[in-house]
From TrEMBL:
Function: Succinyl-CoA synthetase functions in the citric acid cycle (TCA), coupling the hydrolysis of succinyl-CoA to the synthesis of either ATP or GTP and thus represents the only step of substrate-level phosphorylation in the TCA. The beta subunit provides nucleotide specificity of the enzyme and binds the substrate succinate, while the binding sites for coenzyme A and phosphate are found in the alpha subunit.
Domain ATP-grasp: 9-229
Gene, per the UniProt record: sucC
Record's protein name: Succinate--CoA ligase [ADP-forming] subunit beta
Protein family according to the UniProt entry: Belongs to the succinate/malate CoA ligase beta subunit family.
Amino acid sequence: MDLHEFQAKGLLRSYGVPVPDGGVASTASDALRVAKELKGDAWVIKAQVHAGGRGKAGGVKVVNTFSDVYDVSSHMLGMKIVTKQTGPDGKIVRRTLIEKATDIKQEIYLSFLVDRDSEQHMIIVSSEGGMDIEEVAENNPSAIVTERINPVTGMGLFLGRKIAKKIGLDSSLLNKFADVAHKLYNVFADHDGMMLEINPLVVTGDGDIVCLDAKMNVDENALYRHPKIEEMKDYGELEPQEVRASIFDLSYVSMDGNIGCMVNGAGLAMATMDIIKSYGGDPANFLDVGGGADVNKVREAFKIILTDPKVKVIFVNIFGGIVRCDLIAQGVLNGSDEVPSDRSIVVRLDGTNVEEGRKILEEGAAKTGLTIVTADTMADAAQKAVELAAGEEKPAKKKTSAKAKE
C-alpha cells in the first residue's frame, strides 16, 4: 500500500524526524490559508499523487508570493500528472502539500528496502540526491553505498556514521545523519515497510539535515497490525477494479496487457503470467481468488475482469485443491450472466471435481452462446489465450466449446 507524501511525513514527524513545516490543501483557498499560516517568503507546492517524477511533470513548484500560491494551486489541482510510474493514463491531482521553502546546501538520496536475497532490510544512500537512483546507478555506481541491516542490532548509530563517512559528509554532520537514519529506519521497520525513500535528504544552510521528500510503501498483508495506516488508503488513487477487489478480499493488481487472468494461488498466478509472456502475450492483471473461494467470490472476480476494457481474452487457470473446479465453473457462468460479454474464455481446470466443472462449462456455453475454449494443460491454455488475444485464431461463430489436446 502506497502512502502520500504528506501521510509519510506525518509518520516521520511523530518519530522526531525533521521535515519541513507544511499543510495539505484540496482547494486553492486552502492552499493560500496554509501558506499564510506558515508565513515565510517562499513556499513549495507539491502534487499529492502516488507516483515519482512529479517535478518533471509539473507537479512541484516553488513560489514567492501569496498570489502565486493561489494561482499555481488553482492550476495544479485537477491537473493530470503523467510520469514513467503512472503510465500514459496519468494521475489526477486532488490534493497538494504546501511547505515552507528550505535553504538547500547539499542533496542526498536515502532509502530502505526489503532485500529478499539476504532476507534482511537494506539501506541505500548516495551523495547524488535529487536524481533517479537508476540514473545514478547507471552513470556513477561508485556514488551509491548499500548496507544490509542486521535484524538483531537494527540501524545502529554506528552504521549511520559509517555510511555518512562513505558518502563524504562533513565530520560535523556524522552524528546528525546517523540520528536521522536511525529514526527513519524505526519508522520503516515498525510499520512493516516495503520501501521508504527520501529523495532528497538535504543539508540546509544552517547545517541541519531535513527530509525534503518522503515516499513510503507498506506491506498490505500486515495492515491488520496497523489500523491507522489502513485508514490512510486513498481509493481515489486505485483502479476501479482494484477497489472492487479489495471489497471482496481478492488479491488483484491491474497491469497493461489484454489477457485477463483468474487463478487460485499466488504461485500459480505468477506462473500463469510467466507462461503468457513466454508465448508472446501480455497479462492484464494478477488476480488470485484464493484457496477457499466460493461461487460468489469467483463470480465477483470474473466480473472484475470483465469490466476491464483492455481485456480481450480471459484465461481461467485453476488447480482444484481446497477450491473445487465445479464451484469455479459455476462462478464463471454467474459472472458472465451479470456482465454480458462476447470475449473468449480459455479455461484450464484440474484437480477436485474437474469433470463436473468441465460439464458445467460445456452446458453453460451451449445455453448462453459463450465462447469457451477448454485445455488440458497450462501451456495449451496459454497458447490459445495468446492466439485469441492477437486475433490469430478465432473459434467458429457457432462453436461454444473446444477441447485442446496435448
